[in-house]
Amino acid sequence: MQVHLDHPHGSNRISTMAIQSAQKKPRGGSRTAQKASKLLVGLWPSEVRAIQACQTFLRQEQQCEISLQETLDIWEGRISRKWRAEKMKIDGQMQLMEIEQYQSQVQEKEGRKLDWETAAQDWIERHARTWREWWEEQPASCPNSGFCS
Questions:
Q1: Tens digit of each residue's pLDDT (9 = 90 or more) over 62-71
Q2: How many percent of the chain have pLDDT more than 70?
Q3: Cα end-to-end distance, the chain, whole Å
Q4: Following CA atoms 68, 70, 75, 77 in sequence, which dihedral angle do they give, to the nearest 10 degrees?
Q5: How many other C-beta atoms can be found within 10 angstroms of the C-beta atom of residue 78?
Q6: Cβ distance 57 to 73 under 8 Å?
Q7: Helix crossing, 80-110 with 45-62: angle to 10°?
Q8: 148 near 83, Cβ under 8 Å?
Q9: How many CB atoms sit inside 10 A of residue 128's CB?
């Protein structure tokens, strides 16, 4: 089932809430990893995996060592805009599906019929953060699986 971002029951307020719930948070780690990943602070795990895969590809293509900074320069200059647009599309579609499933579950289990906006607000408040953490670790969260190996 494909869900489109222009959901008939959606609203700008719901979109804003969903975006706010998905704000990028700096990630922690070991001292060595922190030093190496300062350039990657604030990126979601799926984008970090994509950048690392991009670096591996560049190393193979150019047959030499490519620094993380060089990779990020190429990523930002040539790849990131399209990748992020596709990622936002996929993430939005998946969130809409999750909200619709939540709406159905509430009706089945609790006997309450929620309108779409109420279901969306409820889902965002109760489940968006944990869903985002789970979703970012899934291979499907990456628009181009070749970039998230």
A1: 999 999 999 9
A2: 72
A3: 25
A4: 150
A5: 11
A6: no
A7: 150
A8: no
A9: 20
